[in-house]
């Protein structure tokens, strides 16, 4: 049995502390206001260590924003309930992990974050929509439209905190948004 060298364990722990601190700072302050110095202070390390491991603020953000949407296996969902299932899933994700909110907040003003957001949603959501069947050429469009609803919902509820959207409970939100997402997933394509 091989043992991990002590220096390697410290390195892994330092990286984990940096990422934890970066996610918290990016979520609280947004990309532009979060500083390497503040992230390092929160991680209780020297700022040079952040740069050593991640090279730049952009590199750190890209690592901190590695995000798995953890999409449910939609094959297990009755076809007429797909939209509802995705809305519920994303409400869980938004409320359970500040990283996605940080990514949305930052993507609105930073090209690196916007590209990261595009990749997360394009790669993961398009793959899930493709697995539902239908015309594979339509999958990217359908996934993009689903993302427009999900990201719009996140922006209005969790970032801007628009009162009429914040005041809706989860069941009401799902009832309002689910049918639109359902149409994007399974409805006929426009002529």
Mean pLDDT: 88
What's the number of structural domains? 2
Shape: elongated
- Could you list the spans in which at least 5 consecutive residues all have pLDDT below 50? none
Helix content: over 70%
In the CATH hierarchy, what is the architecture of the largest domain at level 2? Orthogonal Bundle
Report the CATH C-level class of the largest domain.
Mainly Alpha
* Percent range for β-strand residues: under 5%
Q: Determine the N-to-C terminus distance.
A: 63 Å
Distinctive features:
mainly alpha, elongated, 2 domains, 191 residues, Arc Repressor Mutant, subunit A, Tetracycline Repressor, domain 2
In words, what does this structure look like?
This protein starts with 5 loop residues before the first helix and ends in a 5-residue tail after the last helix. It is about 75% helix and about 0% strand. The model has no long low-confidence stretch (mean pLDDT about 90). The protein folds into 2 domains: about 5-65, Arc Repressor Mutant, subunit A (Orthogonal Bundle); about 75-185, Tetracycline Repressor, domain 2. The protein is mainly α. Helix 1 packs across helix 6 and helix 8 packs antiparallel against helix 10 (about 170-185). It is elongated and about 55 Å long.
């Amino acid at each position: 049995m091989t043992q991990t060298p002590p220096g390697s364990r410290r390195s892994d722990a330092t990286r984990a502390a940096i990422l934890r601190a970066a996610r918290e700072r990016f979520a609280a302050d947004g990309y532009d206001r979060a500083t390497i110095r503040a992230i390092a202070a929160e991680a209780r390390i020297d700022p040079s260590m952040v740069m050593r491991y991640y090279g730049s603020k952009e590199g750190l953000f890209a690592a901190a924003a590695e995000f798995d949407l953890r999409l449910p296996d939609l094959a297990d969902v009755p076809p007429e309930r797909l939209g509802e299932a995705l809305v519920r899933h994303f409400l869980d994700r938004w409320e359970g992990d500040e990283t996605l909110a940080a990514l949305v907040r930052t993507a609105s003003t930073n090209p690196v974050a916007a590209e990261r957001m595009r990749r997360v949603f394009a790669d993961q959501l398009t793959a899930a929509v493709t697995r539902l069947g239908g015309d594979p050429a339509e999958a990217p469009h359908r996934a993009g439209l689903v993302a427009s609803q999900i990201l719009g919902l996140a922006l209005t509820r969790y970032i801007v905190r628009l009162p009429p959207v914040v005041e809706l409970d989860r069941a009401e939100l799902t009832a309002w948004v689910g049918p639109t997402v359902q149409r994007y997933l399974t409805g006929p394509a426009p002529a």
